[in-house]
Amino acid sequence: MEVVNAIGRRKAAVARVYVTKGSGKITINKRDLENYFPSSILQYIVKQPLKKLDVAEQYDIKVNLFGGGFKGQSEATRLAITRALIKIDPESKPALKAEGFTTRDPRAVERKKPGRPKARKRFQFSKR
């Protein structure tokens, strides 16, 4: 099997994933998954699509991540891994779609408007 690549985005985070046959090693920006995401919750988010299909020990995954915070980065990685797994085996799409892993979360930070301190917040109103 050759290298299968996919891209995932969430908020400002962008994850490029390269999946090859292997032993289940996940490398993010040349660092180990446990080293890059010390939080077990974020590690769980990244591994969700692999666990759903029971293929966690079959593929080596190399990830290039940039932008955003750690939560956005982990969810961008999950989307990219999901897209790569669907490229490898199109029959796995319904199982991953049922879990909601194929959906790109479109929510992003709302822009700041002029004449306001933030996007929706207003300056204190003074009657006199």
Give the tags.
alpha+beta; 128 residues; 23% strand; 4 helices; elongated
Q: Oligomeric status of the shown chains?
A: single chain
Helix content: 25-40%
Q: How many helical elements?
A: 4
| Strand adjacency order, main sheet | 1-2-5-3-4
What proportion of the residues form beta strands (DSSP E)? 15-25%
Structural class: alpha+beta
Task: Please mark out the parts with pLDDT under 50 across 5 or more consecutive residues, or reply none.
Answer: none
Number of strands: 5
Radius of gyration: 18 Å
Mass-distribution shape: elongated
Distance between the termini: 73 Å
Major sheet attributes? 5 strands, mixed
**What integer is the average pLDDT?**
93
**What order do the helices and strands follow?**
EEEEHHEHH
List the helices and strands and how they pair.
Blueprint: E1 4-10, E2 13-21, E3 26-28, E4 31-32, H1 33-36, H2 40-53, E5 59-66, H3 70-88, H4 93-99
Parallel strand pairs: 3-5
Antiparallel strand pairs: 1-2, 2-5, 3-4
Task: Report what the structure shows.
Helices cover 34% and strands 23% of the residues. It has 128 residues and is of the alpha+beta class. Helix 2 packs parallel to helix 3. The longest helix is centred in the middle third of the chain and has 19 residues. The N and C termini lie far apart (73 Å). The mean pLDDT is 93.
